[in-house]
Amino acid sequence: MQVNNVTFLNEFSLLGFQVSQNCRIFLFFLLLLIYCGTICGNLLIITLVSTSKNLHTPMYFFISQLSISDILLPTDIVPYMFYLLLNNGATITFFGCMAQFFFFCTSEGCECLLLTVMSYDRYVAICKPLHYVSIMTSSLCVNLVILFWFLCFFIAFIDTLSASRFKFCGPNIIDHFFCDIVPLQDISCSDTFPFKLQTYLLSFPLLVVPILIIVISYGNIVRAVLQIQSNISRHKAFSTCSSHLIVVSIFYLTLFSVYILPTSEQTSEVNKIMSLLYIVFTPFINPIIYSFRNKDIKKAAQETLRKYQ
User: Fold this and answer.
1) What does the alpha-carbon distance between residue 106 and residue 99 come to, in Å, rounded to a whole number?
2) How far apart are CA 163 and CA 194, in angstroms?
3) Terminal alpha carbon distance of the chain
4) Which residues are CB-neighbours of 126 under 8 A, at least 6 positions away?
5) What separation in angstroms does the CA of 170 have from each of 3, 188, 191?
């Protein structure tokens, strides 16, 4: 239906990965393996944190919440991506596109906030160890997580509502494997400046403020650790936050490469690959980093295996 050259779309065509059939089959089985590993790994962390008394601490509580976000994000995108790979592209309804975008925004925003509070938790543990128990109380941690999810649902709803009001004058083809905001703006004939301004304003609580807190927290951590005289104590202090620092670095580097620092030479295929990194590979890597580099989680896993044996 078209009125005054403005098309009211009922569906979009997602191109997915325009590669050979053999390459698409290889991608399908590779992503299926990674997705199954992601679900199993994150469910394992959630189970261990819930059942092991040794892991009933603020840091592991936030890790379990991060695992929930790492399950939500690929589950929102990957199953339909399988359908795209098998059919070399497919259509998605307008409602399905907006729903996919909503849950994508929610999980990404919550991951930003969780990584931020985890860095603050490490700061308190290393720089103010005597006050850690009184600062990072159970009630504070639970209230923060509830606030994070509520805030992310609210911001995602505002962004999705604004995106749903875009007008489209041309083809309904999205050169991507999911309904991301950048390709939606590319095919829209609406004035997207108000939406971009809104996005920049909403990015402050989800991106700018978290990055500042992370930088300040780790700046104070590094300064405090360098003042420790014993090399063994210094190494132990660094090892307590190294896993989190690795996860933060991977997450923000891939996120910035897609949304903050795109270049004119950056093709859609490069954007798709970079998007795969934070949508598929980061949720898969997170539980591996936290389990392989964490003695407490290893110990909890061994104790759980002994119970069932």
Assistant:
1) 11
2) 11
3) 63
4) 221, 224, 225, 237, 240, 241
5) 12, 8, 15
Which is nearest to 256 in space by CA: 242, 267, 271?
Answer: 271
Residue 257, CB half-sphere, CA atoms under 13 Å: how many? 18
Pairing of strands 6-7, 2-3: antiparallel
Tell me the C-alpha distance between 190 and 195, whole Å.
Answer: 10
Helix and strand element counts for the chain (H, E)? 12, 5
Rounded average pLDDT per 10-residue block, the chain, 309 residues: 54 86 91 94 91 87 92 94 90 91 92 92 89 92 94 92 84 86 83 82 82 90 81 70 80 78 63 85 87 75 74
The tokens for 124 are: 């308190």
By the 8 A CB rule, do 198 and 158 touch? yes
Please state, as a whole number, how many other Cβ atoms lie within 10 Å of the Cβ of residue 232: 8
Pair of tokens at residue 164? 């749903």
Dist CA 107 CA 33 (whole Å): 22
In tens, the pLDDT along 210-231 reads 889 999 998 988 888 888 777 7
pLDDT of residue 259: 73
**Chain center to CA of 276:** 11
Contact (CB, 8 A) for 221 and 103 = no
Residue 6, Cβ neighbours under 10 Å: how many?
Answer: 12
Q: How far apart are CA 283 and CA 280, in angstroms?
A: 6
Tell me which DSSP letter residue 168 carries.
B
118 burial level (CB within 10 Å; 0-12, 13-18, 19+): buried
Query: Considering the entire predicted model, what is its pTM?
Result: 0.88
How far is residue 305 CA from its own chain's centroid? 30
